[in-house]
């Protein structure tokens, strides 16, 4: 874990404990206290790592060239994401704490989606020198608390300077002897099962993007807005669905249709979603009413909630907390109102809604016609 | 491995094979061919992954929520670095290929510095839409070729958009039953051993920074300039030094004195470097002559070559390719020309050069006095 950059300003002064301004605020402001440049690279590392307890799976934590993490299975699940300020998060929309929760969550969910138990994160952190150290500390708190939900911890990392904040998060996990649940195992006849929320983060993002909305509207829809800031992946259901015999699984990061599209393509099957089985909770309907939006579109296409979707044999017993939302087909069975079939393009795989193509924007769109 | 960003432009078109302009050029220009925005996120992923053969340790490669990598030891060594354009690399100084080599090298070296064998990388890649796909392809080639030196491979990754290029590299490794070699195990009486080059990358950077230098000077010192672009860590010597009984080890990423300073602090010892034992090769002396610089300063303080330094018992047998450059002391033994001792500050640990303090800038500086 090198900490060297070409033009980095370094200082060995350790000016820490800057007085956090609260870890769950809804703005990116962290107010007073020293900046990253004032504290220096090694002071920053100390400020962060002192907030990060090392869990049982971390055999050697921060402070060396590399960390050592338990991999009792003899294999390790690994996934990585970059989060770039202004692209993946905004400091005026999400607190440092929530950014840490979300950054951890999206990687831990990827581990769970393989049917594995997350064990550790390593975190690359680049930031401008004027960033308050308190922001980095609250980020660390968010990473720590999200990891704690699954018994994982931050094993190490790297800090450097950049014009904007960048996070590089890598999560590790253990399969406990099970096969990883891939995207390419769905079989015709399988049930499609959803665990966790979908549409919430997209609804929250839509509210935040509606710049003309007064603050009291955002406050009235806080549950939805907060869903953008902090997902709630159903981590425990990943290994449980694997143990239940899932043939395929993924997390919903790009949207239900998009991610099931990846499963369908990898498995060379059709996946038919039953729109009447999809949960569309009241808070999402209410947010949609404010914006004149279609809540089902959010549910079908909104990402960033990190739900899990899995395909299991119809005889499989399902863990509590799952909803059957569709089935896997060898081929489409319906004919659209204009006489075309979903597979007229010859893809040989795809995702259907109510047996028919779902398309946004142009073309016929069965689903939008019936909502 | 989510690929979702809030404002990302996505396309499912796959326009690839853009005609690389050569993989080892010394400029960042990659010329013609489609851009990342034209190819789209998934086309970019395909363009990159098709260049990345999956090695024997990668049990499940790119294309799922996470990869699965062998961890036969039951533990996994993990290290991560962020590389930010303009901070850690410049496209006008380093080719995409060399940037890939260097990004992989600095992480693989961290794994080797624990005494482990690198098994896999995962790579986060963020770039502006106008970046030529060829640049990303050449980066992938560089990652691939550096990994191949140690039998590792790229197991997976993540792509997204950003104003400048950002790389998040995570390396994994296997300890093969050995204890990880930490920084805190150096013991008084140990020999300090160097494997690999030091001072080269710093000399090359100094030449590149000297903006007034004509191109023919850079060409005449190509070996030194290239050392900045692409380090040559002595990977195999990491596990060999571990097997030889190294008590402590680290890679030289921040500079010999700085990194040995971390070893000395963690081990609560003094490390005394013998300046006459340090290699100062002709190309570094020649580069120093051009700039009127002190080559020994580069050797003592220059980073980014990713040599390995280790502390071993004086009776230990050393693998070929190592040089003894100093020894570990319980306390300083020399008195400086002004009558002060190195430990007058009461640190209780530190790095000495020829038995005395080495300080840049102010204060007495034995080492500069004798060179």
From TrEMBL, chains A, B:
Gene Ontology BP, a term: thiamine biosynthetic process
Annotated Mg(2+) 3 binding sites: 65, 110, 251
Protein residues bound to Mg(2+) 5: 254
Positions with a binding annotation for Mg(2+) 2: 81, 110
Listed InterPro entries: PurM-like_C_dom, PurM-like_C_sf, PurM-like_N, PurM-like_N_sf, ThiL-like
Domain PurM-like N-terminal, residue spans: 63-173
Pathway where it operates: Cofactor biosynthesis; thiamine diphosphate biosynthesis; thiamine diphosphate from thiamine phosphate: step 1/1
A Pfam family the protein falls into: AIRS
Binding-site residues for Mg(2+) 4, renumbered to this chain: 65, 79, 110
Function: Catalyzes the ATP-dependent phosphorylation of thiamine-monophosphate (TMP) to form thiamine-pyrophosphate (TPP), the active form of vitamin B1.
Misc note: Reaction mechanism of ThiL seems to utilize a direct, inline transfer of the gamma-phosphate of ATP to TMP rather than a phosphorylated enzyme intermediate.
Protein name: Thiamine-monophosphate kinase
Organism: Parafrankia soli
Highest classification ranks of the organism: Bacteria, Bacillati, Actinomycetota, Actinomycetes, Frankiales
